[in-house]
Structure to design on (1071 residues):
């Protein structure tokens, strides 16, 4: 084929090195977190809550990868071709993140979920009314059966979706010629479109479970939208970062990271910057104007106790700076500038997710050791599996007529 | 190599028939130049009768007052706001087709953008009427603008209704600019083709003396692309602000954070339905258009309808679920009241029209059947009207206090005004078809050139329909 | 106005081409031949043509950017002045400077001003409206908006010499060559 494996040796070696490093970091981080859960480093509550943050972050990134893969397969956008294998690999690593959450499910639900506190629920009619969502068919004093069933259901759905895309892509890689590849690629659009619908419905419920239910009186119909945009943004920035880092190594050299692609990536990051700001601001504005405690408590927590400084940071670096950065045509021409943009997005998305999750647990600005250990722990293992999956197949889609047209020297 | 890897997948071309630059120009420009077909007179006549009905309704409204409408407490918004939102939503597809698809470099937009933009402008005109007259005293509408006046008061900038004034007027202005700017080169073409001096002078003035200089084209394209870039967030903001008219309040069913994007998707959904409702008969009326508005375009529009329809349906599901999850008695009552209350028919009609029927569009055969598509597009138009009815009436007629509950029923004057705007819209669309090149000639030539000449690459659309000579060998990127 | 009675002055010499590719090539060669004051006329925007002519500018984007910035600042200030300074009004106990409420109109103001900047800027930099222009004197030019592609070397060019330009244009194999009366 067009990309002989020998050329790719350098990238593959880097991936392998990255894997080993990720595994070590991941195991150390997870070991520290697990030790914390047994009270070795103080209050186990902090360990579980930090663990939840790590889980949420890497789940969101994995789901962002899954969402972007689905979008790429459904719309067949040219610009997704160099990135799609990274997303597919990331999506396939979701079950690992789900599996690693078992310690919380087994040992620490009470430390994370307020609706697990029977004594609170007993004196709160609103929480009692919501409790079937978590406990059905038991009542709120029992086991959260429905919640656990859904947890398994999510893991299964996401695995099946990621695996489906993985298999379909592999089928194309092994097709006999680009014509068959093109046919396969077009055949995927239908199922992928249908899966986007299913993905969004399941994602919405998952965001109630892992996000909104942490503050069980509060809810927002926009939350899942903000999160799906944020997750996709994270996945896009990561893939662009990786591909641009490897721009001097085959198969990512030349046309795979050339200007028209970079322009599309930059423009898409611009679009996501604007869209993320739009949905986030809409939620804020509607909450602010309604002024009902049921809804405002979410922002009251995040606009006080030091959390407001993170909010200012997010407004500046999640809206103003990337807005002008990705608007400028220069960013798409100069690779280091686009690379810096991707790093900025990765950084500020991390701050934003921290600002989203941590204040559910802490009234004042704080970061515990376990927020970091869980973050690197989950991240290490996610990367270990994701890079492993990436290394298993061709790094770029094979038998892809559109990519071959680009790669084979048409100016 | 190039030809060898062309997909063997059946695809509709973007152009039918043997094209040349001259043929493209001629096929489109001759529609306003030649006498109109008899069917045009009929349709224009229907539109004109509707317009007369509109004028009558407005005059009677001004003489008697808002009492001729069915509005009262607690449903004080009624038809005026339902129709306002319905019309402005329809307008949004025009901007979407023109702007977003231009930015996404989707070649299929080129042949329908002019048409869709005209639709936007006329739909926004219809939309603007309703809140203007719903104020009750339209002659003091200038109070809505921050002009120093004898009240020594400023407009209430913290009110979404005031945002609406700015959003809709900006939207109208920018849509007109965008549409007119796209027209300038085509008006120059009309000028150069004109036989009579009068036509030459009129087109000469309207085209600002456009002469097609390469440097002018450069600035023109920059400005046009920037207008597209501005229109895209604008269209989002306009319908978001319309949604805030509701969401800013704390009325159950209105105070919903997902409203802005959900309204935008609904607007695009209904707008694409309206484009299909118009394009399908126009293709019959003007067979020349079929060469440029091909099944490819229609298929795409059907797909966009399916996608946006799902976003809307997601909104309905989300309202149901969170209505229950809220554990708030008013929110929960709203869901039940929608299902089984006095206006249950409107709610289930909405679910049927917007949720069930569009699923037919998953089937390619249905997407390629013009009659079925036409029927589906009408059903979606009706469904989106019911959506606004559900939002406005069902939320308002059952207030927090049972003592404030009421019923709403439109009067004959509500209907006559609504049907009158539809007539006005039809009349304007047919006037547009009569006097202005319906498709963007220069852009069509540009896209035809790019697809079938110089840049032979990417688009795989050439297929066997390609009228072009062998590619010149200059490959390229889109 | 002294020239009214004399033979018509020359605006330039114009060559007519059949395809955009020929025009792009002609523009490249004209530029290579050292001509500065020349322009091309086409029925639709042709990609690669201005690059071939060696023109590069971004006046319109900058105008739009500045107009947009002005619009945003102006409309935000308007709301702050009217609702915070001149006639402060307590709405539901919120701050007078309730900035989230001011964002929608700020945004609309930005778009409105930027759009006018794009439209008026485009016309102004292009020197439009221009109801009269010498190129319209050439009969073939009527097809410039339909299917012909023109290149005109203007008399203002320092290298302009009627015979040499004529010969040069001839070497580009055009469909026709015409003199453009001023």
């Amino acid at each position: 084929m067009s990309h002989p494996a020998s050329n790719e040796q350098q990238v593959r070696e880097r991936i392998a090195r990255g894997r080993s490093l990720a595994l070590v970091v991941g195991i150390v981080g997870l070991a520290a977190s697990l030790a914390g859960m047994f009270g070795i480093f103080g209050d186990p509550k902090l360990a579980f809550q930090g663990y939840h943050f790590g889980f949420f972050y890497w789940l969101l990134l994995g789901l962002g990868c899954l969402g972007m893969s689905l979008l790429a397969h459904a719309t067949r956008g040219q610009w997704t071709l160099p990135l799609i294998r990274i997303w597919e690999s990331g999506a396939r690593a979701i079950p690992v993140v789900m599996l690693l959450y078992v310690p919380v499910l087994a040992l620490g639900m009470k430390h994370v979920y307020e609706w697990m506190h029977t004594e609170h629920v007993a004196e709160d009619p609103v929480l009692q009314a919501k409790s079937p969502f978590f406990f059905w068919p038991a009542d709120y004093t029992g086991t959260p059966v429905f919640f656990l069933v859904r947890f398994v259901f999510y893991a299964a759905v996401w695995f099946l979706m990621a695996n489906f895309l993985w298999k379909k892509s592999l089928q194309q890689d092994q097709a006999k010629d680009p014509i068959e590849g093109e046919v396969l690629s077009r055949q995927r659009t239908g199922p992928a479109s249908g899966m986007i619908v299913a993905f969004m419905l399941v994602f919405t419920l998952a965001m109630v479970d892992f996000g909104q239910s942490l503050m069980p009186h509060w809810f927002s119909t926009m939350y899942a939208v903000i999160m799906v945009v944020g997750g996709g943004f994270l996945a896009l920035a990561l893939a662009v970062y990786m591909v641009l880092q490897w721009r001097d190594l085959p198969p990512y050299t030349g046309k795979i990271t050339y200007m028209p692609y970079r322009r599309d990536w930059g423009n898409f990051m611009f679009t996501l910057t604007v869209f993320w700001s739009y949905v986030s601001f809409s939620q804020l504005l509607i909450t602010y104007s309604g002024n009902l405690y049921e809804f405002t408590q979410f922002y009251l927590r995040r606009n006080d106790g030091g959390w407001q400084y993170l909010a200012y940071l997010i407004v500046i670096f999640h809206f103003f700076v990337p807005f002008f950065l990705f608007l400028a045509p220069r960013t798409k021409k100069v690779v280091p500038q686009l690379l810096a943009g991707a790093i900025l997005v990765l950084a500020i998305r991390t701050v934003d997710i921290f600002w989203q999750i941590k204040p559910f647990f802490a009234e004042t600005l704080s970061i515990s050791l376990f927020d970091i250990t869980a973050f690197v722990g989950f991240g290490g293992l996610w990367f270990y599996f994701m890079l492993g999956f990436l290394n298993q197949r061709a790094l770029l889609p094979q038998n892809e007529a559109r990519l071959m047209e680009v790669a084979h020297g048409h100016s | 190599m190039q030809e060898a890897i062309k997909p063997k997948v059946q695809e509709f071309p973007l152009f039918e028939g043997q094209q040349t630059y001259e043929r493209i120009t001629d096929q489109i420009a001759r529609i306003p130049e030649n006498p109109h077909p008899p069917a045009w007179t009929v349709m224009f006549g229907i539109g004109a009768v509707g317009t007369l009905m509109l004028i009558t309704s407005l005059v009677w409204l001004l003489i008697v007052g808002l009492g001729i409408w069915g509005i009262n407490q607690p449903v004080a918004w009624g038809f005026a706001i339902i129709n306002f939102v319905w019309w402005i939503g329809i307008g949004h597809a025009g901007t979407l087709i023109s702007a977003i698809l231009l930015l996404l470099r989707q070649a299929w937009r080129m042949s329908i953008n002019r048409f869709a933009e005209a639709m936007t402008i006329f739909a926004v005109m219809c939309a603007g009427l309703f809140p203007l007259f719903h104020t009750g005293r339209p002659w003091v509408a200038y109070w809505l603008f921050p002009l120093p006046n004898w009240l020594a008061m400023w407009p209430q900038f913290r009110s979404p209704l005031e945002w609406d004034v700015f959003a809709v007027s900006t939207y109208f202005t920018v849509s007109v600019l965008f549409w007119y700017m796209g027209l300038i080169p085509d008006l120059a073409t009309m000028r150069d083709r004109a036989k009579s001096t009068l036509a030459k002078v009129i087109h000469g003035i309207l085209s600002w003396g456009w002469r097609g200089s390469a440097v002018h084209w450069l600035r023109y394209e920059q400005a046009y692309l920037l207008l597209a870039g501005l229109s895209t967030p604008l269209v989002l903001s306009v319908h978001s602000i319309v949604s805030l008219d509701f969401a800013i309040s704390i009325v159950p069913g209105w105070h919903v954070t997902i409203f802005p994007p959900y309204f935008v998707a609904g607007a695009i959904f209904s707008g694409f339905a309206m484009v299909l409702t118009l394009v399908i008969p126009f293709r019959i009326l003007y067979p020349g258009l079929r060469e440029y508005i091909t099944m490819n375009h229609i298929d795409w529009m059907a797909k966009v309808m399916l996608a946006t329809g799902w976003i809307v349906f997601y909104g309905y599901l989300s309202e149901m679920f969170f209505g229950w999850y809220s554990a708030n008695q008013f929110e929960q009552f709203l869901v039940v009241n929608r299902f089984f209350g006095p206006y249950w028919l409107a709610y289930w009609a909405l679910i049927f029209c917007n949720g069930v029927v569009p699923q037919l569009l998953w089937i390619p055969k249905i997407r390629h059947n013009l009659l079925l598509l036409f029927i589906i597009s009408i059903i979606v138009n009706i469904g989106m009207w019911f959506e606004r009815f559900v939002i406005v009436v069902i939320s308002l007629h059952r207030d927090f206090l049972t003592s404030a509950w009421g019923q709403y029923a439109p009067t004959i004057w509500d209907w006559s005004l609504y049907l009158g705007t539809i007539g006005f819209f039809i009349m304007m669309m047919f006037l547009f078809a009569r006097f202005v090149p319906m498709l963007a000639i220069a852009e069509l030539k540009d896209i035809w050139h790019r697809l079938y000449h110089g840049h032979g690459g990417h688009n795989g659309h050439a297929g066997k329909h390609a009228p072009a000579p062998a590619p010149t060998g200059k490959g390229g990127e889109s | 106005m002294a020239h009214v009675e004399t033979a018509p002055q020359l605006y330039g010499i114009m060559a007519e081409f059949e395809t955009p590719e020929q025009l792009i090539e002609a523009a490249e060669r004209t530029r290579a031949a050292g001509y500065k004051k020349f322009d091309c006329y086409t029925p639709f925007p042709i990609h690669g043509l201005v690059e071939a002519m060696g023109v590069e500018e971004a006046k319109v984007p900058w105008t739009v950017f500045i107009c947009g910035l002005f619009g945003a600042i102006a409309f935000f200030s308007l709301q702050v002045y009217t609702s915070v300074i001149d006639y402060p009004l307590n709405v539901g106990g919120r701050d007078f400077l309730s900035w989230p409420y001011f964002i929608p109109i700020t945004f609309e103001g930005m778009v409105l001003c930027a759009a006018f900047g794009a439209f008026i800027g485009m016309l102004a930099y292009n020197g439009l409206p221009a109801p009269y222009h010498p190129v319209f004197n050439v009969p073939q030019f009527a097809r410039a908006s339909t299917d012909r592609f023109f290149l005109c070397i203007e008399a203002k060019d320092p290298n302009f010499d009627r015979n040499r330009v004529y010969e040069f244009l001839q070497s580009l194999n055009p469909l026709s060559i015409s003199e453009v009366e001023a």
In short: Chain C has five helices and four strands. The helical segments of chain C are 20-32, 49-53, 59-86, 99-125, 162-170. Strands of chain C lie at 10-17, 38-41, 149-154, 176-181.
